[in-house]
Amino acid sequence: MLTTIEIMDILPHRYPFLLVDRIFDVTPGVKAIGIKNVTADEPFFQGHFPGYPVMPGVLIVEAMAQVAGVAGLLADDNKGKLGLFAGIDSMKFRRQVVPGDTLLMEAEFISSKMGISKVKVCAKVGDKIAAEGEIRVAITAPEGWKS
Question: Is 48 a known active-site residue?
Fold first, then answer.
């Protein structure tokens, strides 16, 4: 299990953009399972449907991409590199995510070509799917990046 502090050692994200609280299961370069505890004091709730707080879909996708990034960056040949969101191939939103929900996110690498990996992602609240689809993640060491 990885804590928030350990995740911050892998990802460059910080509050309010770090959207993963824990990683429960990870196979480097293959898959990861993590959670985001959605609380009423999230900064995005102030402006996203005030009075009826709903987590923005784009942030659910970003949270799943961060889980994928942790799995990709833990692979031996990727240590010290940066994971970048490279695309959304498909995404479906099935239910709203609201304060009090715990978002369970799964990411599984499907294929990799020329440094870009295709990843199957799924976010659930309880046993109900909130969002699912396929994204692309690029693992790179950009010039000037400090790890």
Answer: yes
- Tell me the pLDDT tens digit for each residue of 58-98: 999 999 999 999 999 999 999 889 999 999 999 999 999 99
| Catalytic-labelled residue, pool 13, 22, 31, 48 | 48
pTM of the predicted model as reported, rounded to 2 decimal places: 0.94
- DSSP assignment of 37-89 equals E--TT-GGGGTSSTTS----HHHHHHHHHHHHHHHHHTSGGGTT-EEEEEEEE
Q: CB of 33 within 8 A of CB of 104?
A: yes
C-beta of residue 111 within 8 angstroms of C-beta of residue 81:
no
Per-residue model confidence as pLDDT tens digits over 92-144:
999 999 999 999 999 999 999 988 999 999 999 999 999 999 999 999 886 65
In angstroms, rounded to a whole number, what is the distance separating the alpha carbons of residues 88 and 112?
15
Helix (H/G/I), strand (E/B), else coil: 20: coil
Q: What domains lie within the chain, and their CATH numbers?
A: 4-140 (3.10.129.10)
